[in-house]
Here is the input.
Amino acid sequence: MPTPIREVAEGLLPRVDEMTEAMVEGYRQRIPDYPKLLARHSQDVYAVSRKPPLIFFQLALENRPATDQELTVIRKAGRARAGQGLTLESTLQAYSIGREIAWQFISEAAEKAGVEEEEFSEVTILMARFMEKLALRVTQGYLDHMKHAYEGEQHRRAVLIEIATAMSRSRDREGGAGWGL
Here is the structure.
């Protein structure tokens, strides 16, 4: 027989789109960078925002922690936000707002279902651990992108220096001394 919190998770699964709408509206209202991001990447923001509650409800249903495979999606999202120009602070703030809104849905549904305090405490711990892992993976993904961008820029700079040096040597050989770098 399912426990009340599992019933709550099952009952909230059909409301994930409603929850996602509330999350995205929360980002729009509370994070200055988000209206501009949403103008360019709204489908991606909705798709990414929808995944954490779906994963969390699955964890609650199965009473288990998140797997690395499940969290890989979140890391990719952090990388994408960095590539879209969002700051790490705004990215993490969005996950915090998402957690807050999801928790409102969960706590209201748990209260209506009469979930006992002890069981609700277990779900609180599950949510806290899940959000801790989310923040870590988002940050890792964000830093992955920044590292890749930095390495790419260093490579481009080295190539430009190499080209400029070669051009300078070529001009020097052609008798145009003093034209080089």
In short: Residues 136 and 176 are 56 Å apart (CA to CA). The radius of gyration is 24 Å. DSSP finds six helices and no strands in the chain. The longest helix spans residues 117-173.
